[in-house]
Specification:
Belongs to the NifZ family. With 79 residues, this protein is mainly β. It is built from no helices and seven strands. The strands form two sheets. Strands 6-5-4-1-7 form a five-stranded antiparallel beta sheet, with no helix packed on it. It has a two-stranded antiparallel ribbon with strand order 2-3.
Length: 79
């Protein structure tokens, strides 16, 4: 399976959420499907990685209150 290519965004880049982001179970202290980030919320990319099997870029974005959420490229946009 081929990934979506090279990273579209860089570490330190300011971005905004393009959609509401909900808990997929990654935040055990929050209910499943709890709203984590609202569409339009600003954040900053603090790390760029990739899914091992698909090579899909994954962006760790720090949104307000030091909440770091893993995002796909279509879930964020440059500010």
């Amino acid at each position: 399976m081929n990934g979506s290519g090279p990273a579209k965004f860089e570490w330190g880049q300011r971005v905004r959420a393009t959609a509401d982001l909900f808990n997929d179970g990654s935040f055990p202290d929050q209910p499943t499907d709890a709203l984590l980030v609202r569409a339009g919320d600003p954040g900053e990319i603090v790390q760029v990685g990739s899914h091992v099997e698909t090579e899909t870029p994954i962006y760790l974005v720090e949104f307000g209150e030091r909440r770091v959420v893993g995002c796909l490229a279509d879930e964020i946009a440059p500010v």
